[in-house]
Request: fold
Amino acid sequence: MLASLHGNGGDASAEVPVSKESKAEKSNAETKMKRFIYLGMDGLDPALMTLYMDKGHLPNFKRLAQTGSFAPLGTTNPPQSPVAWTTMATGKNPGKHGVFDFIERDPKNYGLDLSLNKEKSSVLSGTSYERPFSEATFWEITAKNNIPTTVIRWPLTFPAEAKGDYELLAGLGVPDINGLLGKYTYYYTGQMEALGEKSGRLVKIDRQGHIDTTLQAAKGAMGNPLSVPLSIATAPDGVTLNITLQNNQWTGRQGQWSPWLPVKFRGGLFKTISAICQIYIVSTAPELGVYVTSVQFDPKDPLFPISTSNSWSKEITDILGSYFSTLGMPEDTKAMMEHVLPPEAFLQQCYSTLAWQKTLLQAKLEHFESGLMAVVFDTTDRISHMFWKDTDGGKALGKKNPILDVYIYMDEILGYVMEKFKDDTTILLSSDHGFAHYNHDFNMNNFLVEKGYMALKTTEPPAYGNILFSIVDWSKTKAYALGFNSIYINLAGREKSGIVTKSQVDGLRKKIKEDLLKFYDEANKEHPVANVYFKEEIYKGSHMADAPSMVVGMKPGYRYSWQTALGGLSEKNTLTPNDKLWSGDHCFDFNAVKGIVLSNKKIVKNNPDIQDIAPTIVGAFGLTGKDMDGAPLFNG
Reply:
């Protein structure tokens, strides 16, 4: 979403706390708990899970619920994936680990960054990355205590630098070779104006028998784009395309995906960047349309570490017998939202991602004798976002329900694990949040302007579409919104042009909260804001200074707009209809979108919470984590 990702992250070399138990106690713990398998499934919703189990669609989930435990899982406030998965990994609230939203700001210049990874740039060393948080994770604790540990695609773990003896493959947050979360390329003939604005790179080509063009991927040391040759030739039959990408040759027709294709870019003197991409033929007649995925790190030779050793990501290609998507979010929701990638192609992309993850998990479990195995599947979240409206919030039980289909796929994975490991193995499964309808955009910065909390340099309508606070008059602004649930006070002495004194903060926040709770949607007879939380009410820890001043819990159906998330205003009103394909979401009040937790062991804690996952895992091995906020879900 942001073209540049710069920020100051936590200390990746922070010491991992180690249990003080004796070697004998550790040995007893390891004997007692032979194997622990954690399955993370992003966005699985308790209401849908119950419905699908009751209708007989999820026999393995139902069996696990009946013989073990099934309960809603309290999520983080706000209920956003980076916040939730980091809390699950550490067992600590955001005030301690420092991840508060998808988007964060730099008060020194009001600049915006993504929280999913931390890019650092240096004139001497070039670009480098560090993990977005420094608090110890449950897998670092188990590995430090000599428990064999493997973690597959956990979010916010890029770069995957080992802080102990364990295997880890990074997930959400791994960028493409541009340093972006993903940017597709689309080659086309004809016109595209009717399809609206696009976030990918569009290349218009002339229809002819043979087309020579380039695939651009990244920028070199001097800022010049790196590219490789691409040619598209239409066969005599008029429907087959012969595509040559650098040294790769592939022949396909409309509706077909290529295999992953390796390419090499010259990044400067004596430097070569290895990458991979995949091609989909959208159309061949009457107009030509060819989609290319974001250019991603080559797992055999990644530019930055995507696994705890480059040899392990290479080993994964050997296990799979092919390349695999290394991007943190390989499911291209942007391309589908922008009507470049058809829904059926998007689903094929989703299941391709699920398939290699399933194959890798099964391969690793074949030799899983003892220790900890943790894997996160997040394609479930992407499908829920994109098909929520079409399936009536997932409740439709007919044949065309992609949400039900992906739940069934997850049920099959669970069934495999349950059948293979029946003894001496604890199975714990959870999601990070649930889902609900996303019908209306709430343009929070518009609201702040209307109520006099934010001032603008200009009120001309064209300016309202700008982002990054480009039209804000900070000398008269008391509060501003960004991300998907956050409001910040423009505090004197902290923000670059802050005007609110510390003594004024509480009174100002109370007034903003009062105005938000009063706001009424006349057309739909609803109060869009369910609750407003002050940071001191929900967080504690060393990162409190970085926390948003207020967290807004929207009522399901209403979500911060995309413009708000990036520091912008709508050209229209505070409330606007959401007409995008992205029709389901979870950035609402955290009480309304709980996740799920299931286990083959009885959960003894009332109202299980997302903070309990990490202490439950380390506790199963007789270990404890330092300063965790959660508590184990099991007795012993």
Observations:
- The two ends are 44 Å apart (CA to CA).
